[in-house]
Structure formats: C-alpha cells, structure tokens
## 1
Amino acid sequence: MRSVLAAVFVLVSLMGAAPAVANDGAPINVNVNMARILRINAAAATVIVGNPGIADVTIQDPQTLILTGKSYGQTNLIVLDSAGNPVADTMIEVVQMQAGVTTVYNGLARQSLSCAPVCQSVIMMGDDPTYSSQVLASAQLVQSNTN
C-alpha cells in the first residue's frame, strides 16, 4: 500500500499544474475535449479508467500517459505494471474550460462562445441541441469549401 501511495504521489507531483500533494485526495484535473500529459516513475503496461465515457488514457511510452477529457465528471484511473502490480490509483476530474468561454442563455437555451479575442460559436456539452447542430453544420460547410 505504501508503494502505491508513493507512486501516486510521484505521478501527481510530476504533472506540472496538477496538485502537488496526492495524499489529500485531490483529483487530477483535465478540461473537457483537451489532452494532458501524465508522467509516472514506473513502466505502465495497463491503464484502466473507471468510466471511459468521462476520460480516456493511452500509453504514449511506458512512463508517459495521455489523459483526454471526454465528458464532465469524475472517474478513477488505475495504472498497472507488466506483472499486474498497481503503479498508481487516483481520481480524474473532467471540467469545463473557463478561460475565454462565455455562456449565453436565451430563455432555457444555452449557447457557448469562445471570446479570445473575438467571440465565435463553439459547441460545449449542455448547449442547446439546435444551436449545436447549426454550429456543426456551419463548420462542416466551411471545411468542405476549403478542400
């Protein structure tokens, strides 16, 4: 158990903007639709994500994992070595990116705009489905005209 806690501490402390102390139970944060690099001190052979609908983790190399936020929420991450021994066991929290995102409510319909520096429509989870469809159709139209 002590080696697992030490591995979690190293995993969390080596991640830059992640919490510096793993023993306080603070989760590793990642923004939805964004990726983050996790470095660990032991070779990973297997990664297990409790709810793959919330986050995805892939092994880039034995000591580098790529964490991708897929949906809002919390789940856990377990990393095993080639012998099946736990290297890390920690919580992952996927959150909405706050910087530059503005939310507009039109009655009950929610719309998201990325305002850095000019406001443009973006699709965020929880937006009005009609708005999201229109933004997606517009993006596909622009993409088809550039090819």
## 2
Amino acid sequence: MFSNLAAIDLARAQFAFTISFHFIFPAFSIGLASYLAVLEGLWLWTGREVYINLFKYWLKIFAIAFAMGVVSGIVMSYQFGTNWAQFSDRAGPVIGPLMAYEVLTAFFLEAGFLGVMLFGMERVGRKLHFVATLAVAVGTAISAFWIIVVNSWMHTPQGYAINAQNQFVPLDWWAVIFNPSMPYRLVHTVLAAYLTTALVVGGVGAWHLLKGRRETAKGNDSHNTEGARVMFSMAMWMAALVAPVQIFAGDEHGLNTLKYQPAKVAAMEGNYRSHPNGAPLTLFGIPDDKAGVMRHAVEIPKVGSLILKHDLNAPLAGLDAVPRRDWPPVHIVFWTFRIMVAIGFAMLGLGLWSLLARWRRRLFDWPWLHRAAVLMGPSGFVAVLAGWATTESGRQPFTVFGLMRTADSLSPVSAPAIAASLTAFVIVYFVVFGIGTWFILQLMGHAPHPGETGVPQGGPTRTAGITPAPGQDPALSLNPAE
C-alpha cells in the first residue's frame, strides 16, 4: 500500500506514526505521575480514605500507560540508526549525550522507584512509599526536560561548531541545553501534559457521575460516586486554572517562534504574502501551496499583526519572503495549529463552566457539564498531537533548522524496506496498543470504590481500612485513620 512513495516519504511517515503513538503515553504519564503524588500526599495529610482509593485506582492505569510509553519509545530510538543514519552521524555528538543524560538522570530514577511505587505500599511504609511516588513524578518531569532540550536544539540550534567531518560538535553545553526555544517549549509541553491528564480524569469522573445518576433514577443506590466527585472536582480546578496559563504560554511560544522560525509562523497564519501595513488574522481557508495563495479565506483585518506584534499596523513577513524550497507544508501546519488552538479554548470554556457550576453549588448536579467533560476527555491527546504536527511539520524541510535538510538526513535504505517495516509497525501497534488502550478503558469503566485494590502483587493483599493483624508491623497498615 506504500509502493508509490519515495524512501524519504516513507521514513517520515514511519517516524510520524511511531512518535504519535509514543507521544500520547508520556503526555498522559507525566501528568498522571504528578496526580498520583498529589493523591497520596493528600491521603497522608488528611487521612481520608477516598484519596488512597483514587491513588490505587489510577495507579493501575498509570502502570499500563507507563509500560506502553517505554515500549513505544524503544522502537523509536532504533529508527535513528535504520532510517536516519546521516542525521545520527552528523548530529550525534550533540544529540547522543543529551539522550544519555535523559537515561542517567530520569529513566534510572523512574525505573529505580517504579517497583516500590507499584508494589511496595505494604512493604516499605507510607512515608518511604510517598518518597518513591515523588521520585517517579520527578523522573517523568526530568525526562520531559531532556527530550524537550533535544527537540528544541533541532529547532533553534546554538552552542555548536561544525568539525572537519561535517559533524555538529558542542562548544558550550549551557548554550546547547538552554537554547532560545527550550524554556517556551518545555512550559508549553508540560502544561499540555497536565491538562491532558486532567481532562481524562475529569472525563472519567463525569462518566461515573452520569452513571450514578442513571442508577439512582432506577432506584439502585449501589453505584458509589464519592471518588468520582473528588476526581471530577480536582480535574475541573486544573482545567479552570491551567488552561488560561497554557493559552498565555502558547502565545509566548508563538512570539519566540516568530523570532527564530518566521516561515513556520507564516504557515500557521496562512500568510503566503507579506503585509507591510498590518496582517489579517485568517480564521479559515484552503491553503494552496502550488499557487501560493489562501483560497476562500475568512479574515479579520489587522488582527494578525496585533496578536503577533501587538500593533495593528506592524508589518508581517509572509512565505513570499522565504525561498520556495524552504517552505513548510502549509496545509498541515495551518490546520493542525487551528485544531490545537480550538481545543485549547474549549478547555478554557469547560474550566469556566465548571467555575460557574461550583459557584452555584451545582458542580455535581449539571448533567450537560458532565456530558461536555466526557466529550472533552480525549481532547488533550488530540491537542498534543496537533501541536506536535504543527511544530515538527513547520520545521520542514529541515531536521536541524536552517542547517541540515531532511533529505540529507536519510539512511541509504530502499523504499520497499521501509514500506515493509512500516506495514509491520502499523499492524503490530494497532494490535498491541489497541489491546492496552482497551484494557485501560475497561479499568476506567469501573468506578473507584472503598477498599480499592492496587496493582496485583501475586499474593495476599490488604486494602485501605483494614487493621493489621496481631504481631504485624503497624507501618504496613493502610488504615487512613491511623
């Protein structure tokens, strides 16, 4: 089915496919690890059983998501050698050590404490277990830091030289790490991970609130909604407080991109031509790269310059100021950017709606709010994928922006070989990760309840509220009243 595509197109499609699967799991696990730390901290602080029940409920989901993220990440790394050997050879002296730092500082921390977090609640005591949970949460954040450093350097490279072998070699590691776009990209990505997790948690909580209402209407009061109420309330606080911060962070990131990658911003805005007296804001249109025009454009005059330069009449360069061979694919960048922005404002709207419901003391009694939260549950994943497509497609036709073209990064590999591996990836990924996602949805379909069990440990387990047996170490009890 890929027989008519060139090797470079297939290699790009394979990397895009595998990284799309990979990206959604860390985006979830980064936020979920922090959420688990908050839940366990609240349990230790307040002694409320509902928090440890929610902790155990989401811990099972975290374990599966984390495992799928690790597996999908391992597959991606091999492609640097199989499909992108020229890139690995030239950029390896910079990229290689950064990836090694991620393993040494983040992955080892996560792997070292993950077992304690998953299976050690009854073995190491509450405080040490909380330390393990914090270590895993910090490890996911550190991992995000190093990956964003690598990606950002490819967008805004600095602190390097080019040696006699035409390789990028580091001259100043501080300049490499803290390159111009890294802080903006890091904040934007981490906030996106937190919002993605909050919307999933809120969607699950809203689902069980709706389900509880239906059961009550049938005269069945067995559906426990205490956990659903707590996680829905926490998720809506996150949406209400973080969504506006994310919109501001995204705007700052856009201004940084305008400074260092103006062609990407021109593609995002759909500006094929320069506007010396103020650029419009193009809401919708049909990009035509061949003709270099935006067809059927719906525009608001001058607002584009106002947003990007805070001046209605500020000049704004278009793609006509960039050599045609350096244009990114406008149709991808233009539409994925709009999808991301639309979802961002939908998140803000959901958060404001929840604040109104909270103010009117109807947070748990507005079915339409709950239906909207269920509908928005997977939207964070769509937003992060759309944002990734925007920023990475906008960097094209370069792998290292302005310095190394994607066409020069490819391994000497044939199109049929890549097509075969891509076909295998498509089949295996949809089967394996489809089953994993189905299992996660099955876990989410059951409401958290008192006495929630954690990850199966292959032996007798105790649940919250059970008092230790005579002679048993009291530190192993999960009774929140102690």
## 3
Amino acid sequence: MPKSVGLNKGTGGRKRNLTIQLDEEIIQQAKELAVRRNTSVSGLVTQKLEEMVSAEIRYRQAMERALEAMDNAIDRGGITSTRDELYEEMFDE
C-alpha cells in the first residue's frame, strides 16, 4: 500500500469525521476490498483521497513552474535578433 503523503500537516495531524452516502452494493464491495487489502473502508477512502489531492498538488506545482518558465523565456525561440537585423548581418559585410 502506498505511503501517506502527509497531507494532515496543515491541521496538526488532527483527524475529523466525514459522512458520505454510497449505494449499499458499493459499500459491501468496499468492505470486501478492504478485507482483501487488510485495511478498512475508511483507510481505502483516505488512501484514495490522499493520492488524488497529492496528484493535484503536483500538477499545480508543475503548471506554475511551466508558466514561470514561459514567462522567463526569450521570444522567438531564443533568437534575439529581428529578421531585418539578421538580413543586414548576412549582406552588410
């Protein structure tokens, strides 16, 4: 089972209850899955939510880095001369 990503750090590790409503069939299947994985339904839900939140955090961080890199990039693919300047360099020797 994947390790926890430590998302409780912002709340001092305190845990709170969350009530959800699921179809009876899903609940039964979740209980059976939890037994096979040697955990609880709460553990399954916690693990999946931590994975989803962690993935979202990584995505947002990557997006911020990409946007920052684009903001800092040089226009025209790194070419700093204009077309006219390049033309002059080629023919004004």
## 4
Amino acid sequence: MNIVLFHSTYGLGPAVRQAADRLRSAGHEVWTPDLFEGRTFDTVEEGTACKEAIGKDELLKRAVLAAAPYSERGLVYAGFSFGAAIAQTLALGDEKARGLLLLHGTSDVAPNASADDLPVQLHVAEPDPFEPDDWLSAWYLQMGRTGADVEVYRYAGAGHLYTDPDLPDYDGEAAEATWRVALAFLAELDGNAQGS
C-alpha cells in the first residue's frame, strides 16, 4: 500500500521514523511529511505552542500539499494523535483514499462528509484523556453516517501515545498488539487493492 503517515504534536521524531520503517519492512511505500519543518519537541506543551503558532489552516495546507503527489495512487492515510486528526480530515476529503489508520487520535467529522465503505481502524488507550468515551461514541456514530467501515481497538491501562518508546506513555505490550492488528489491516487492504 501507499501510506502517508503524519506525526504527533511532538514532531517528526524517531518514533515516527521507526513506525515508517516497520511499515516499509512489511512491503508498504511510506511517506512521512514534516508539518513542523524540522522542529521536534520534548513536551506536549511545546508542540502545542508550535502547532498554534503555525495555525490549523496552514498545517492542513501543508498536509494536503505533502500528500497530493501520491494521492492519485490511492493512499492509506495514517497518523499519531494530532497526525491522526490530520489523516482523518484528508482521507474524508479524498475519493481515492484506500484506508484510514488512526493511532491515538480522531477529529471532528464534517456533517456532509462521505466515505462510502472506507476501511477505518482506530487504536486508542482506555481511558484516554484526549479521546474520552463520550467523544469516541459520538465520533463512531458520525463516521458510520459517512459510510465508513470502522473498527475500534481499545487498550486498557495504556497511556495516550503508548506506541512511542521515547515517552512515559509507552506500553510495549499494547504497542505490539496495535502493530500486529494494524499490519494485518494494511495487508488486507493491499490484497483487496491487488485483487481489484
């Protein structure tokens, strides 16, 4: 599959590069846009300040421009936390999108969004302060209305960004379980794409 993988609020750091390498090892083509133009951060607060300084519209514009050269191939959009929110927005706006892999994050669903049969997989901690239960329930219903085919996986006791080995949130067992399921999801999408 052709995958565009968006980083979290921490920026395009080692964890994102490692994830991209893992996906490439499974046979996928992966691009990792740097929406912060080389800046990485040690804390959520620093990353959030950068994100707010750049602005939502500019970040979305950067993401669209980064994905555009590959979108004709049919992309799987993926991302971590803030990057997952970006990936969701782009996938719901791309008729050629092949799938959506959300790690630790979601975003608002536009009322007129349409994603007929788009395969979507979400992996989140349980509980997750950034993705509370009532929000996720509403999000799931809204995604269903778009026509997306959504699977949600919850990981009890894990921290928010539990797949990032450089953070205190890291949970090795939950991270490996996530990657096992996510790689199977991508392999199925790849099989479906080659069969069509």
